[in-house]
Amino acid sequence: MPASNVNWAANPLTRLLPFYPGQWGVRGSDSKLGLRTHTDGVVYYVNPNHPDCNDSADGTNPDQPLVTVAQAITRCLPFRGDVIAVMANNSWQYGTALDGYALPITENVIIDVPGVRLVGISPSSSTGVVWIPATNAGTCITVNALDVTIEGFLFTEGGKAGANAIAGVWNGATAWGDNLTIRNCMFDDTIDIAISLDFVWYANIHHNVFWECDAYGIYVVQPGSGVSNLIISDNVFHDVATSAMSLVECSKSHIFANSIYNSTALGGGAAANMGITTATGSENQVYDNYFSCVLPAAAPGDWDDLNTSVASDAWLNNHCTNGPNVTRPT
């Protein structure tokens, strides 16, 4: 599945004439404001590889883009519909400097403006725009605002000592990371925690790829995280080291159509909670996912070893290597 199959409005559509006389005999069909075909949102371009990039520019011209995502965030306004468009780069591990565009995005940013869409523009890539943290053990993107969308990036440590990709975090006061959407991204085998959630509700995480992350694919911070009402679907988790989805304390969430491969479980080794765990949560529904483990067999690497749930969960029609499963893991 493409990790960067993004779809975005490259430019605002044209606003039509400012006055419509309406249709004769149809009350309310006239409008002195006219029909508006777009919001007032602004597209800000970020491209550190452009010869004329400058963080002093206004960022709305792709021929004079901004250098950093952080600078673009400072120009965004709440709920205006702003898009930060980050241009593709050539810092994939097998790229060559002769082709140019060798600089990745190298930042630890905080998105604190609600309603912003952050998009990696890489239409020819299955991986996404390469993003590495600015510091050892850094987090590339921290979200402290409502209604943020992130898509089209490849997160990798890029030579740093440890790296985390995206964190949705309540700041303990009035900044919430609720309604966060993360889609069409890739997290490679150098990332420690791909996505962490702390007191985030109504997040939608779909169509991402987690390749052998060093610790967690999706991680709910504990204790007291208060994460609820997530939708997690259509993701690929391949040999994530500690747990594909550690959803401890998570409640009222729907987890479906994900593919979870774990070579330890497949080989019959101990793989405790390396699949999905919803321990101490409540009222989650987990269905139609695919696991590289056998049906419950009271053995290492089986269904009950790989996963853990709670009594109020519903685990329905999940798939193991030797048939469909109809029991809740214990």
Describe the structure.
With 330 residues, this protein is mainly beta. The protein is built from three helices and 27 strands. The strands form four sheets. It has a ten-stranded parallel beta sheet, covered by helices on one side. An eight-stranded parallel beta sheet has the order 3-6-9-12-15-18-21-24.
Q: Which structural class is indicated by helix and strand composition?
A: mainly beta
Distance between the termini: 31 Å
Strand runs, count? 27
Low-confidence stretches: 10-19, 33-38
Q: DSSP strand (E) fraction?
A: 25-35%
As a whole number of angstroms, the C-alpha radius of gyration is 22 Å
State the major sheet.
10 strands, parallel
Q: How would you sum up the global shape?
A: globular
- Please, what is the average pLDDT? 90
List SSEs in N-to-C order.
EHEEEEEEEEEEEEEEEEEEEEHEEEHEEE
Order of strands, widest sheet: 1-2-5-8-11-14-17-20-23-25
Total DSSP helices: 3
- Please estimate the helix content: under 10%
Per-chain topology:
Blueprint: E1 43-46, H1 69-75, E2 83-87, E3 105-106, E4 109-111, E5 117-121, E6 129-132, E7 138-143, E8 149-151, E9 153-155, E10 163-169, E11 181-183, E12 186-187, E13 193-198, E14 204-206, E15 209-211, E16 216-220, E17 231-233, E18 236-238, E19 243-246, E20 254-256, E21 259-261, H2 263-266, E22 276-277, E23 285-287, E24 290-291, H3 303-306, E25 314-316, E26 318-320, E27 323-325
Parallel strand pairs: 1-2, 2-5, 3-6, 4-7, 5-8, 6-9, 7-10, 8-11, 9-12, 10-13, 11-14, 12-15, 13-16, 14-17, 15-18, 16-19, 17-20, 18-21, 19-22, 20-23, 21-24, 23-25
Antiparallel strand pairs: 26-27
